[in-house]
């Protein structure tokens, strides 16, 4: 199912989610680190809080929550990082990206910055972030905890949500809805592809998009 | 003339407009959807207002103003969309882009988002927008009316204005000024190309850019 | 040393600067005009103030401070421009970029806009800026003075500071610290490259990043 | 009914609107010009577009749409101005405020700036705006048209909508919903006032806010 | 000690915290709901996450975390709310403020909005927030959990931190530092008051602020 | 003349400046620290640059440029501070305000924050700033130099410019234009006051504002 979610993409899923009252599932303000990146997979989460010396002393060193998250991310998972939308500090770099890549992670989404950008891109790991920045995370963040409900890009992300990202953006699909949302989205996409083919042939969109009964009949006959 | 406006580009036109007191003709905050996109053509306009259930019920369905605009955009025209600068909802997608492309439209400028980004780029239609977003327009907008004076990217756009876009940005040239502005801009560009050639040969810009009388004489002699 | 600073890059330098209490050396909000641009070199500075007719009359014409700065930038130098972060006016164009390129300048960093973007990229000069814009600088700026301490991208820049830029961003290294900061950064980079190689082989980062004593011993033995 | 809408206030109306799917009816970013201002009344609308010399020549002079709107605003009406959220130019001043006050207007809401702030406050007219600014509207705006659907503070405003403003903010109630929304809001308010009285007596809010069956029974018995 | 922290105020505490490396303890973007409000007390915390239907269904109803926090806030405590800086929804209203007031809470700090503003002010409870808004919290938030480390106004807040607010803003003092920070701040304040008295008598600040040895001797003699 | 500039106020001066092509003279984003503050006087200037340890060591201590500026500000002068619009650090506090007050300064305008807000207000010195903040200036700034052309609130300020501030905002009048701008503004104000009186009597603004020939004749006859 993950593969099909990745294939159908965020635009189609967004419509199916909207139909069920899910309007606020978009992780806005993040962009793929390189053109063409896509990802889909269940969310692992990591939450940063603002830098403070005592908190950094408590949780910033050694195998801190950030490093533990990257060290334990599983094959097919997407690590999602709450960095409060701040692009002025790195939230991952090349070593952590390599580790996630080695583990077979499906990607990383951070609403903070990326460090070692060129090297991170070179790992081949799909990464969506709010920008690039040379600094280490300690400039702004303390890595605080993992596997809790977080905010990323203005949306709530629950561990286990299905995260999907492509050139249109990134969104989450609550796991309980994934099956029906996917079915809807695939149906919509088949219909829209058929409409697009008609438009490419020169048809007016009047009555075709959205389809009136006549066009709907032709569409259904074509299947 | 449209072709010449497209060739001379926004930088040259901007100077000629400024000379006539037009300082606020820039559609800021929009970027080409893919590198290298350029466009020029007379403006068709489309105005969205913020989403509200009653207004969407009134004008959101069927061949609404958005769809009518895309269905009737003419060859060589540029469709300009007022979306109040919000990148958090789509304002066009692949089917509408295909339709505009089929009609021979010169392009689309929207200060909202684009949906189905990859497929829109694939149509070959030049599109300038404020970002990409998976959601449908109903998340934020009601398509309200066409062919009125609108605001896009902070500038007023009048139906029939000449819209020009390239790597520097997008601007409008009031139709009544297009001829003289073009003449000015072409003259400036010829002069600047000649200056650039001298600079590339190693000349100092002191006295050359802007040209003093001596350099002006040499320039005029060269023509 | 400049070449080595360029090679080690901003991420490594940022850590070494942080260790010495330099947290606010980042020229944020600027991006390379084309992918892959990098630069390093001592700063020349240029300060713009907001447009006002009397001030523009006094310093806007002829070989004004902007043109003088580009005409006299030396081989290997980086010209840094204070434009108050405004992307809504050009702060350099193709003729000035050509001149800097001819002089062998290492690059330009402006927290304002670039005009003639395609032509500037074509010169091959590395340029980092806050965006592109068709307008001339007189829309927002008066070129005021050169070779003073300025603000660019939120950081103070002193003439002679070493400016380094790459895909992660741009920062300044105070000249007096350049030697020790470089030494630190190269040491860190060698260590991190060795760690990355281990991670690529499948090692956990637990104990390896950061290194515990056992890993440190292996690292030191490897050198 | 207007008086009752004004009395019940925006907080109560907001809940009743939300219950009917109206989530985006808030004119955000505007504040009362002086503490304690309140207003309620049917909307008259005025739309500005960005300044451009030709458009200002066409509609900026004489009894332009701005002046006509203020000259004809009726007793009890609220004039709502679309100024694209820009606080950097005045959109009304003391003479126009006086005129509206003389006509018995219920108030003005502008998402632009106010000029002659002290004198406008002295007229006693309730005004909500995005700030104060000394400049005339021609710095940023052309007064374009009246009595059309506009955007103000991020919400669509239809002529005839009921506009209500108080210390919490400003919102619109679609005219067709005003009766039922008011009834709901008054019911809620009576209940909340009763709850508040209990809380002021020291009751825990557990079971009381929201009310469980026991508290509901006591509430209903009290009426 | 709380009373003395409140008396010394945020400006003095800020200097003493800075001396110990605490630069990022400010809850920026919040303002007192009415002039003259001040507060000090140990922090209770409440964390909201972005609205989503399934999460709201899970934790939005009944005695949810928001209501539980207000129902159990203790005498002298300050309730601090993480609302991600969004002023476009209420995060507390008059009933909850009354409850906190009844319990003797020292105040509330929210980086979200306040609903029923006039009634909240009337309770006399000191409240600092990012603005006022008529809507209920469900427009943007799900009340998620209490008594965890949160972010408010860009700073980390730990349950038990001492929160201090006045006309200059709001900050947190880590509990372990409160004693020494207070001592420092009181010492600074005594000195600055003495300096201010000299300045009011007409002394130049040269040598006096900061004090040179001569002035320091006079100051110490005066005590 | 200063007294008359203060009396006529920023709205009237703005129109007279606009007539001469001065559109960008507004110090936007600053507000009076307490209601009713007004100021007018020639500008003294003070420029801060972003914090950096080496620069602060060089110019942050002792009688630094900030303290020297406050210590030497003359009777009737307005001290204007460039703080790059950052409200997250103090740029003056009570001791410096007292000193300026003692010297008879006309006021202070800073596009940074104010510390010790209540005490600064109590001095009676008119202060316009971008906000309040508890921190010292060293959190963000190095006091760099005085008596140079600076940027404040987005406008260029030249030492000797006449600075005028009231409830509408703050602007600068270039000294060379002050006489004629004042004459214009006083003429406009007399006319507008006469118009306002007519409007208060119930006249329509049609033909009156702006005045047609008939009203103009009556106005001139009235003088």
Automatic annotation (TrEMBL), chains A, B, C, D, E, F:
<comment type="similarity">
    <text>Belongs to the class II aldolase/RraA-like family.</text>
</comment>
<dbReference type="InterPro" id="IPR036704">
    <property type="entry name" value="RraA/RraA-like_sf"/>
</dbReference>
<protein>
    <recommendedName>
        <fullName>Putative 4-hydroxy-4-methyl-2-oxoglutarate aldolase</fullName>
        <ecNumber>4.1.1.112</ecNumber>
        <ecNumber>4.1.3.17</ecNumber>
    </recommendedName>
</protein>
<comment type="function">
    <text>Catalyzes the aldol cleavage of 4-hydroxy-4-methyl-2-oxoglutarate (HMG) into 2 molecules of pyruvate. Also contains a secondary oxaloacetate (OAA) decarboxylase activity due to the common pyruvate enolate transition state formed following C-C bond cleavage in the retro-aldol and decarboxylation reactions.</text>
</comment>
<comment type="subunit">
    <text>Homotrimer.</text>
</comment>
<dbReference type="Pfam" id="PF03737">
    <property type="entry name" value="RraA-like"/>
</dbReference>
<dbReference type="InterPro" id="IPR005493">
    <property type="entry name" value="RraA/RraA-like"/>
</dbReference>
């Amino acid at each position: 199912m993950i593969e099909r979610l990745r294939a159908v993409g965020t635009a189609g899923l967004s419509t199916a989610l909207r139909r069920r009252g899910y309007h606020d599932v978009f992780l806005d303000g993040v962009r793929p680190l390189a053109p063409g990146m896509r990802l889909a997979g269940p969310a692992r989460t990591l939450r940063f809080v603002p830098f403070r010396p005592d908190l950094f002393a408590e949780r910033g060193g050694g195998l801190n929550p950030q490093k533990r998250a990257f060290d334990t991310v599983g094959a097919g998972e997407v690590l999602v990082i709450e960095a409060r939308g701040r692009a002025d500090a790195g939230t991952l770099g090349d070593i952590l990206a390599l580790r996630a890549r080695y583990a077979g992670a499906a990607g990383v989404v951070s609403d903070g910055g990326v460090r070692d950008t060129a090297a991170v891109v070179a790992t081949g790991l799909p990464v969506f972030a709010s920008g690039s920045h040379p600094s280490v995370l300690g400039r702004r963040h303390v890595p605080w905890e993992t596997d809790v409900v977080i905010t990323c890009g203005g949306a709530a992300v629950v561990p286990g949500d299905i995260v999907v990202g492509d050139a249109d953006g990134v969104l989450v699909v609550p796991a309980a809805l994934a099956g029906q949302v996917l079915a809807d989205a695939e149906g919509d996409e088949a219909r829209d592809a058929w409409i697009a083919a008609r438009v490419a042939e020169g048809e007016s969109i009047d009555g075709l998009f959205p389809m009136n009964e006549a066009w709907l009949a032709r569409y259904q006959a074509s299947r």
